[in-house]
Amino acid sequence: MKNPDRRKFLYGAGGSMMALPWLETVAAAGATNKLKEPSLRFASFYSPMGFVRDHFFPKQDSQDFLSMPTLSPLKKVGDKVTLITGLSRVNVRGVDVHNQCSSCYLSSADPHGPLKSVYPMDRTLDHLIADKVSHRTPIRSLELNCNTFKDLKESIYLDNISWYGPEHVATSIKDPRHVYQILFKTGKSDKDITDLILQDASNFKKSLNHHDKDKLDEYFTSVREVERQIEKLNSYYKIHKKADVQEPDESPMTRGEYIRLMGRFLVLAFQGDLTHVATFMLAPERWGTPQLYHELNFTKSHHGLTHAQGQDRVKKMLVQVDRFYVELFAEVLEQLDAIKEGEGTLLDHSMITLGSGLGDGEHHTMNELPIIVAGSANGRIKTGCILRCPENTPLANLWLSQAQLMGTDLKRFADSTGPLKGFLK
After folding, report:
1. Could you tell me which of 173, 424, 106, 126 has the C-alpha nearest to residue 276?
2. How many angstroms separate the CA atoms of 289 and 224, rounded?
3. Which pLDDT score is estimated for 220?
4. Structural domains in the chain plus CATH codes
5. Which segments of 287-388 does DSSP mark as H helices, in order?
6. Hey, is 177 helix, strand or coil?
7. H-helix or E-strand containing 419?
8. pLDDT in tens, 176-193
9. Handedness of CA 181, 185, 191, 193 (dihedral sign)
10. In terms of DSSP bridges, do strands 350-355 and 41-46 run parallel, antiparallel, or are they unpaired?
11. Strand partners, 298
């Protein structure tokens, strides 16, 4: 009997059953099957305003990071997690620190060189990776954001970590219903309509200045990308079954339920090979409006808490927020690790980072950044340990290593001095 090009397996979660694609296998005649190396998935989770340091980082002589109050929720997958210390970023003086924390977190701009924007922004790591691997999946990349605020009083720099280039944001998706529609709904492409719009646009494009022409080109490039995504999804679902997951409705959700649902969609996207690149903001940077933390039974401004953490009562609440986000991150990792794929799990075949653009939210420092990497990238990354880097090692060294693991040919990234030493086995 011939081996199928793709095999399907049933995976049960929350009482539902899903039929989704598994790995391609290569059979040796008369011998046991040998699995092709699974495609590597990349995701970057962002938590704003750093973490309370003495609840996150263990003492210098300790390797037991899972005993720290904030990191203890990772115990179930602790052997597949690496805590990295000593990483830092450059704080470009004279511009808002929080804006550059989030918008430049994954940036490929050298903060020491001439800047193309007020902040050291450029095409971010996720899109440099997607440039290389997006041919493998229907969806080029997925940008998720768990910001429930409606006031929109803050800038886009605080609310997005994914950028196509300087000042060209890859707008993140905040509505779970929209995420569902992107992942599982297909339909007729509006290509004919877009062609008419393009034809009409050409009539006035000559009168635009250089900046507006670039913006128009960016817009239609995005439209064409949506078209290609619809067409690729239509083709994909002709031969693959969709996940049996219910479309979200408008019922109110707690903060935890909301983030869990968005995390579940990320898992489904990776599991179904719908995309191999994703970013995930657990919350926006700085935002002064108080946030209702239903599960923690209080409404507070996360930013405000960081600046009053000298008070024991406030620090206790801030540690609760930190742990809350790590718990939700851990649930995503556990779901990935429960999905068998080839000779390992989906987590084994992924590289999932949780971090923040600030090392200390109270003093706005960018040294000793809190960074966790989960998954071994198909067995290449050292896990279950602390990687202690020399003080002020550029965060860009980690991003360069991850870019290279994902198959890019980058030799340098931002202010990197080389791949991160000790990161790989």
Report:
1. 126
2. 36
3. 60
4. 40-176+241-405 (3.40.720)
5. 302-306, 312-337
6. helix
7. none
8. 989 988 888 766 554 444
9. negative
10. parallel
11. 293
